[in-house]
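quick q for whoever's on today - can somebody do inverse folding on this one?? i tried earlier but teh output was garbage lol. tokens:
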């Protein structure tokens, strides 16, 4: 691929150039040089992103024609001695700590924004790199339509911030401003209470991901009567752990999870797909993280423990 480096622009590195990574590239490529972290030698970058000006559901209902965005990124190895300003971490949670640590050490002026699932790496990286690490969560989504094409499936919101409220770096504020002036692939906003956002997302993932992975079903099937007791039990245990961390849980945790399952009823969780394809899951960073929090306080979590063991055993059986 011919280099499209613009030396007057800042350089952005996207770790995990998959679904969310493609949205990051599409969002910022007009203002930044976008590079994908080549974490494996056979990496093939997507070339196009199909998106709608409105939500995909509304676009389908109104028979709107989707637009096609050409992704202008390239592997970071194509430019020797490349200096990186922003690192977006969109890879699996089990890769995020090591990769982010190495890249922040390699690029001492860079700021990292973590968008991976689960929790654990955020805390460790913030302890080591302090203000150079921001936490994030997104409700945006995309799926791979072919080897070189992604299709945006959800136009949501991407929230970023520090684990404790403090002013954002000027460069990050500029990112948010740039995002507001272009096509909203990410819906980037600042949130001084990002820990609560991530814990609420963890609550939903702790229910939906293991159940759909074990039962190999869509998100909406979590609403079935056979899972009612498990949904309630996991929610009760997670909200207790949240309060121990001084995190305010949803007013009705079960209703919160059920509403998200209904909203994404036809979707399949990433963990369900990982189990189906015999890939490593992020269970250690979802239920495993919660079990560690419970161990530190001596709190019994029979529902979380049972579902953690089910996924571990199920994954080993399918491997």
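ok took a stab at it. sequence:
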């Amino acid at each position: 691929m011919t280099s499209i480096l613009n030396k007057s622009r800042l350089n952005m590195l996207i770790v995990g150039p998959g679904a969310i990574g493609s949205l990051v590239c599409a969002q910022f490529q007009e203002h930044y040089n976008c590079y994908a972290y080549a974490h494996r030698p056979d990496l093939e970058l997507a070339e196009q992103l199909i998106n709608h000006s409105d939500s995909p559901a509304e676009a389908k209902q109104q028979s709107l024609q989707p637009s096609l965005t050409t992704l202008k990124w390239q592997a970071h190895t194509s430019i020797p001695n490349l200096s990186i300003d922003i690192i977006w971490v969109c890879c699996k949670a089990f890769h995020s700590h090591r990769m982010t640590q190495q890249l922040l050490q390699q690029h001492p002026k860079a700021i990292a924004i973590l968008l991976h699932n689960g929790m654990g790496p955020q805390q460790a990286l913030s302890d080591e790199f302090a203000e150079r690490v921001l936490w994030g969560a997104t409700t945006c989504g995309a799926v791979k339509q072919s080897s070189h094409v992604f299709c945006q499936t959800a136009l949501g919101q991407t929230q970023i911030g520090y684990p404790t409220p403090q002013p954002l770096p000027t460069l990050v504020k500029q990112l948010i401003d740039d995002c507001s002036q272009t096509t909203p692939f990410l819906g980037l906003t600042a949130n001084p209470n990002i820990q609560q956002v991530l814990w609420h997302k963890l609550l939903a993932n702790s229910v939906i991901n293991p159940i759909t992975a074990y039962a190999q079903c869509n998100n909406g099937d979590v609403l079935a009567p056979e899972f009612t007791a498990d949904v309630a039990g996991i929610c009760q245990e997670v909200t207790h752990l949240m309060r121990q961390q001084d995190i305010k849980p949803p007013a009705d945790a079960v209703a919160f999870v059920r509403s998200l399952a209904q909203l994404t009823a036809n979707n399949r969780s990433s963990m369900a797909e990982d189990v189906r394809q015999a890939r490593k899951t992020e269970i250690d960073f979802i239920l495993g993280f919660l079990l560690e929090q419970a161990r530190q306080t001596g709190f019994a979590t029979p529902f979380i423990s049972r579902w953690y063991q089910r996924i571990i055993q199920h994954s080993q059986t399918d491997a």
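fwiw The chain has two domains: 11-192, 196-318. also Residues 87 and 112 are 5 Å apart (CA to CA). so keep that in mind when u check it
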